[in-house]
Amino acid sequence: MVKAMRTAPGVGLAAPQIGIPLRIIVLEDTAEYIGYAPKDETKAQDRRPFDLLVIVNPKLKKKSNRTAFFFEGCLSVDGFRAIVERHLDVEVVGLSRDGQPIKVDASGWQARILQHECDHLDGNSLC
Ligand SMILES: [Zn+2]
C-alpha cells in the first residue's frame, strides 16, 4: 500500500482502493509534495509535512466543530476534484503496522486526509 501511494504519487490510500478488503489506511505528506503547491494555498489549507502513518482499523472522531471547505482529489478518480467540507480537528485511534495501539491527533490538511481515507473504508467517499 505504501508503495502504491508513493508511486501514484498521493498523500493517502485506503486498502479497498487497491482491492484489499481490509480496514487499513496509509498516509504521508512531504515537504517535497507541499512545495509543488502554491504557498498561499498550502498555508490556507494548514498543510504541513508528516511522517508515514499506517493505521489498521482506524476509528475517527471530530475534536472540534471547526470545519473548512477545500478542493479535494482522489487517486481513484484521476483528474477530478470536488469541494468537500471537512472537520479541521480529528482524533484517530487504531493499531500500527506492528499491532500496537496508536492515537493520532490531527488538524488542518492531515485531518482532511484522515477523513478522506476513513471514508473509503465505510463507502461514504465521493470516490
Ligand atoms: Zn480517495
Describe this structure in a few short sentences:
It is built from 4 helices and 7 strands.
Description:
The protein is α+β, with helices and mostly antiparallel strands and 127 residues long. The chain has a single domain (2-122), classed as Peptide deformylase (Peptide Deformylase, Alpha-Beta Complex). The protein has helices spanning 2-7, 31-35, 39-44, 108-122; strands at 12-14, 24-29, 50-62, 67-73, 81-87, 89-95, 101-107. The strands form two sheets. The protein has a five-stranded antiparallel sheet. A two-stranded antiparallel sheet has the order 4-5. The radius of gyration is 14 Å and the shape is globular. The two termini are 18 Å apart. The model has no long low-confidence stretch (mean pLDDT 95). Bound molecules: zinc ion. Zinc ion (ZN) is lined by residues 74-76, 116, 120, 125, 127. Residues 74-76, 116, 120, 125, 127 line the site of zinc ion (ZN).
Any guess at the CATH architecture?
Alpha-Beta Complex
- Total discrete domains: 1
Q: Provide the residue-averaged pLDDT.
A: 95
CATH homologous superfamily grouping: Peptide deformylase
Low-confidence stretches: none
CATH topology: Peptide Deformylase
Number of helices: 4
Assign an overall shape: globular
Number of strands: 7
| Main sheet strand line-up | 1-2-3-6-7
* CATH C-level name: Alpha Beta
The small molecules bound here are: zinc ion
Terminal-residue CA separation: 18 Å
* Radius of gyration of CA atoms, rounded to a whole number: 14 Å
Helix content: 25-40%
Biggest pleated sheet: 5 strands, antiparallel
Class per helix and strand makeup? alpha+beta
- Spell the H/E element sequence: HEEHHEEEEEH
Strand content: 35-45%
Enzyme class: hydrolase
Catalytic activity: N-terminal N-formyl-L-methionyl-[peptide] + H2O = N-terminal L-methionyl-[peptide] + formate
Organism: Salix purpurea
Pfam family, one: Pep_deformylase
